[in-house]
Amino acid sequence: MPTAPPLILIVDDNLDAREMYGMYLQHEGFRWTEAVNGHDALTQTLVEKPALILMDATMPRMDGWEAIRILKENPVTKGIPLIMLTAHAFQEHRDRAAQAGADAFLAKPVLPDQLAAEICRVLKIDSPQKP
Fold this sequence. Notes:
Low-confidence stretches: none
Strand content: 15-25%
Largest sheet: 5 strands, parallel
Order of helices and strands: EHEHEHEHEH
Number of strands: 5
């Protein structure tokens, strides 16, 4: 019996960004769900149990760096890979993401093939159909 493709949680306060990356992921064979800020990502992660989280950095209510830190400190969620996907592209932002616990970092804009390749690399899969 085939397994379901990995579920990716997209966390971004920008609706257009969530929908665009969601369509990229769907086209590549992933399933996706969404959260509008870091606070909602904490809840969604516990409810949806995603295989991976794409986290924006700057959002209202709780930013991505804080959400990553909390998720990585929680024994229930610490094993879920996190990719920071943000327009903040300087080395200091990469370092801050790594210090928070991000498993990878991508600077926006990112092409669909690059996004899918990085997700597969972090999940250690060849494609969504082969988890």
